[in-house]
Write a structure and sequence with these properties.
Layout (H helix, E strand, L loop, with lengths): L2 E6 L7 H9 L4 E4 L8 E5 L2 E5 L12 E4 L4 E2 L1 H13 L10 E4 L3 E2 L2 H14 L11 H9 L12 H19 L9 H15 L3 E2 L1 H10 L4 E8 L21 H4 L9 E7 L2 E3 L12 H9 L12 E3 L1 E2 H11 L3 E5 L9 E8 L5 E2 L11 E7 L17 H14 L3 E5 L7 E3 L1
Parallel strand pairs: 1-10, 1-11, 2-5, 2-10, 5-7, 6-8, 7-9, 11-15, 14-16, 15-19
Antiparallel strand pairs: 3-4, 12-13, 16-17, 16-18, 19-20
Helix pairs in contact: 3-4, 5-6
The chain binds guanosine-5'-diphosphate.
Length: 422
């Protein structure tokens, strides 16, 4: 199948960047379909580490066209900065050639950032743990039909009119909320300047992708965050504001629904950053050890990630929602020297047991764990599945059995070549 969709199976940070980098070598187009610069994909290249926030990971491959789809919300000032940084690293970023930006993608402005931080402050102990970068308010304005789109930035009359419309809505409540009013002229200057810089890349990306699909081109759809952060299918309200599961791959690009290979990226254990229920979380010393062994600190914010056991209930749910046909298991090397446990069911507050992910009261379930023997060997140089220690193989096979999903790729280190194909 010429289209592949890659999604994170839990709450993000599963190592999608490395897997997409690996798959992009054989791809014509790499397309981001959701999220904003709250995402962070880490690539470890021969020239060193590279963290991408908005630009698709295919940018490091000379032949790949990278597309920021209409489902992404774009902070144009951040995007200009990210382009500059990549160019300083010697990478080719050629707007209109190897980087296309959907004219329909919505724009994040300063007011969104302020609104985001203000709303999170009001939530107090009920905070969601957002990155405070204005992503949620930009999506909210899209639904409220007062948003700006990238195509507006290169149409001065439309931009000014759209900014006046936005200011009218926001300024009606910003002042009582203690937020500074929107200054339309200052915003116009900044956004129009960013629009001029980005102009060669702002195109009808959906049309380009539909043509590419019709011509049989290989398209890689790059999910941001993870299925359990999907605004509708995830652990609401502790979710992001976009459709992070496979459903978003069509609405967020303009491609028509069509059969594709869908790959779910799962870490060999579970992590979550920010607030929200996490049934298999380890709040003890073992969780700390796992965080340090896996260097589980956010690539965008540096926040420590919460760590826990692999959760086959949650993975099965996400796999079903996203139509995942196979898993890539990352970070298996990190589990060296750890006892191994897998969550295979949840005990509900009423004492019953379930293997289905509940939409409510996930914070009240108890994980039912099975223990497996651990391994002490260093896996980072292993390149064949049969060469893995027997206990590591048994762990991978137990995950396959409990999730019902085949694992054809196992990652045993951050570098490109640290991968085992079965
Ligand atoms: P993403 O948002 O899903 O791309 O995940 P991040 O890039 O934020 O986090 C994944 C981290 O794990 C990065 O630092 C990667 O370099 C690293 N990584 C990816 N695969 C492996 C692996 O198999 N083993 C180890 N030890 N690290 C990995």
């Amino acid at each position: 199948m010429p289209t592949t969709c890659v999604v994170g199976i839990l709450w993000g940070d599963e190592g999608k960047g490395k897997v997409i980098d690996y798959l992009a070598a054989d791809t014509d187009f790499v397309v981001r379909f959701g999220g904003g610069h709250n995402a962070g994909h880490t690539l470890v290249l021969p020239t060193g580490k590279l963290v991408l926030h908005l630009i698709p990971s295919g940018i490091v491959h000379a032949h790949t066209v990278n597309v920021i789809g209409n489902g992404v919300v774009v902070d144009p000032v951040h995007l200009c900065g990210e382009i500059d940084k990549l160019r300083q690293r010697g990478l080719r970023v050629d707007l209109g050639r190897n980087l296309l930006l959907s004219e329909r993608a919505h724009v994040i402005v300063d007011a969104h950032r302020r609104q985001d931080q203000w709303a999170e402050g009001l939530r107090g102990s009920g905070k969601i743990g957002t990155t405070g970068r204005g992503i949620g308010p930009a999506y909210a304005d899209r639904c409220a039909r007062i948003g700006l789109r990238l195509g507006d930035l290169i149409r001065p009359d439309r931009l000014r009119a759209a900014l006046h419309g936005l200011a009218l809505q926001k300024n009606a409540w910003f002042a009582p909320a203690g937020l500074p009013a929107l200054d339309v002229e200052a915003m116009f200057g900044e956004l129009a300047a960013a629009g001029e810089r980005l102009r060669p890349g702002i195109v009808d990306a959906g049309a380009v992708l539909r043509d590419a699909h019709a011509a049989g081109k290989r398209i890689l759809l790059e999910g941001a965050q993870g299925c359990l952060l999907d605004v509708e299918q995830g652990t609401y309200p502790f979710v992001t504001s976009s459709h992070a599961s496979t459903g978003g791959a069509f609405s967020g690009t303009g491609l028509p629904p069509h059969p594709m290979r869908t790959v779910g990226i799962a870490k060999a254990y579970a992590t979550r950053v920010g607030e929200g229920p996490f049934p298999t979380e380890l709040k003890d010393e073992l969780g700390n050890r796992l965080r340090i062994a896996g260097n589980e600190f956010g690539s965008t914010t540096g926040r420590p990630r919460r760590c826990g056991w692999f959760d086959t209930v949650a993975v099965r749910y996400s796999g079903a929602v996203s139509g995942v046909g196979e898993l890539v298991l990352t970070n298996l090397d990190v589990l060296r020297g750890f006892p191994l446990q897998l969550c295979t069911a949840y005990r509900m507050p009423d004492g019953s047991s379930t293997t289905a992910l509940p939409a409510f009261d996930l914070e009240a379930v108890q994980p039912q764990l099975v223990e497996l023997p651990g391994f002490t060997e260093d896996l980072r140089e292993v390149r064949r599945f049969e060469a893995l220690p027997a206990n590591a193989r048994a762990y991978v096979q137990a995950i396959e059995r409990h999730t019902g999903l085949p694992i054809r790729t196992v990652s045993v280190g951050p570098e490109r070549q640290q991968v085992i194909l079965r």
